[in-house]
Amino acid sequence: MKENKTQANPTPAAPAPASKLTREGMLIIISGPSGTGKGTLCDRLIAHDDSIRFSVSVTTRERRDTETHGVHYCFVSEEEFNQLKDAGKLLEYATVHDHHYGTPRKMVEEKLKEGYDVLLDVDSQGAMNVMKQMENTVSIFILPPSFASLKTRLHTRNTDDEAEINKRLNNARGEIERYAHYDYALINDELESAFSRLCTIIEAERMRTLRFHPEIPEE
């Protein structure tokens, strides 16, 4: 903004902030087909905002060379996964690309109570299950700018063989049909622009009166 040099009086001091700001933690659900860049967007959001905690999912698929156990996923056996599921310790679980995925319940519930926002990076099956169980979630579906770009991204990240890439491309069409069940659809056409729009969504949702309860002082 340009400075108004003709202004005679100094800029008035900003009004005193509310004496107490209370905001409930919100559950942010991000989904999208493999290759849309949702993992990169989630990583940037966590690094950018220290009031957000990432919920590390458990999975039975093999760890990729670029992944760290306990950071990107908790990699478990089929037996361990079934034990968690049978004990009711998973908020949601689903089978995606022939592998099992699930969200540990305890961490999500504890961090929300502490006032943190919790970020879930889950597939559309898991997202639907969470939205049925949890109120006032913020759900965002990440879309590719085109199927051609999605195919290119899956090839250039060099994490899957040709058969796996084709399976993910075929599954992507079905996943994308579910975007209308989410609160927001975000096209990741350019990373910086997409990340800026994602941050705007998060900030706006934090100000909604269903979770933001300011107390305004008399003076």
Compact summary:
The protein is of the alpha/beta class. It has 7 helices and 11 strands. Strands 3-8-2-9-10 form a 5-stranded parallel beta sheet, with helices on both faces. Strands 5-4-7-6 form a 4-stranded mixed beta sheet.
Describe the protein's architecture and organization.
This protein is 37% helix and 23% strand. It is globular. It is α/β, with parallel strands linked by helices and 219 residues long. β6 and β7 form a beta hairpin. The protein has one domain (23-207): 3-Layer(aba) Sandwich (Rossmann fold), CATH 3.40.50.300. The chain has a five-stranded parallel beta sheet, with helices on both faces. A four-stranded mixed beta sheet has the order 5-4-7-6. The protein has a two-stranded antiparallel sheet with strand order 1-11. It has helices at 38-48, 78-86, 105-113, 124-133, 147-156, 162-176, 191-206; strands at residues 20-23, 27-31, 52-54, 57-59, 73-75, 90-96, 99-104, 117-121, 138-143, 184-187, 212-215. The longest helix has 16 residues, at 191-206. The two termini are 30 Å apart.
Main sheet properties: 5 strands, parallel
How far the N terminus sits from the C terminus, by CA atoms, comes to: 30 Å
**What is the subunit organization of this protein?**
single chain
How large a portion of the residues is in β-strands, by DSSP E?
15-25%
Q: What order do the helices and strands follow?
A: EEHEEEHEEHEHEHHEHE
What Rg, in angstroms, do the CA atoms define? 20 Å
Number of domains: 1
| Total of DSSP H or I helical runs spanning 4+ residues | 7
Mean pLDDT: 86
Overall CATH architecture: 3-Layer(aba) Sandwich
